[in-house]
Amino acid sequence: MKSFSILLSLACIAIASPFFDAQAPFGDGLMNSYPGFTLDLNAQRLIQTEGEIPVWVSELEKIQMKAQGVKFFDITDTQALGTSTHLRLQDKAKFPSPNATEKVRPILKTLSTKGPKENLEKFSSFRTRHYRSDTGKQSQQWLLSRIREVITNESASKSLRKLISHSEFLHSWGQNSIIVRINGSSTTDDGVIIVGAHQDSTNMWPFLPAPGADDDGSGSVTILESYRALIAADFHPERTVEFHWYSAEEGGLLGSQAVALDYEARSVNVVAMSQFDMTAWVKRGTREEVGIITDYTDAGVTKFNKALVDLYLDIPYIEARQIF
């Protein structure tokens, strides 16, 4: 419930080589032993870790890095991200104190854990949602169908459905990212608010089962429930709102980088973006709290999210670091 409240409030502003061992653990016949995967273990990937020069590694070495807990970006296909000469020059968006309380509080009362639990049971029933697996593609198709055929068709009014689009952002690896867009009514403000989560999952080794109930099935169904509640309330935003379910986060943020590169190329005016990851699990013996990432984030959005927690939730936030 805590995450539903935060992102509903955010949406309403739219009205606003040391990493691996040289000894590979797998034999040459590995792929033959695990059908249902399109994974070239010898493929070369360009990997960026914090504070280091990008290095080329094999797909197998990248898997080993992941298993060892090394955080990285796979920038093989997105080396130009952030370098476009026609990036829009504009002042950073300014965020007021949360001011849509009259709109938000009635919607909060309609939130339920029933739908997210049912969706999560199905979503985590796929053997793995690895982005290069057959079941990863199947889980993505199920999620898209669930959003479009069930949530939107059952919850949105006829007039609101005209403003909503559902699309697959195509990726070469098979599991596509999903983008749901609610077009804003403003003719002068082309800003876009994005609420996101990643739909894929992985184990320490990609061929093992990975139900991914918390990472990040929980974030995926959290933003889905928030989308349902908004459209059920006949939410007509002034500023366009998008919900994103990214593919291949576990492979080095591949899906979100591809979307960002496309948005940069098209000069999409993204005013704010909040990502929801691992929203369900609380370690035994610890208190429930909201972790707000403070590194590699926009200070204005971070401050606004903190204000939303203070206003709408009965649990505190803590500052956390992602350290990609």
TrEMBL record:
Keywords: Aminopeptidase, Hydrolase, Metal-binding, Protease, Signal, Zinc. Belongs to the peptidase M28 family. M28E subfamily. The keyword Metal-binding applies. GO terms for biological process: proteolysis. It comes from the Eukaryota. It comes from Tricholomella constricta. InterPro entries: M28_fam (IPR045175), Peptidase_M28 (IPR007484). Residues 178-308 form the Peptidase M28 domain. Its cofactor is Zn(2+). GO terms for molecular function: aminopeptidase activity; metal ion binding; metalloexopeptidase activity. It is an enzyme of class 3 (hydrolase). This is Peptide hydrolase. Its EC number is 3.4.-.-. Residues 1-16 form the signal peptide.
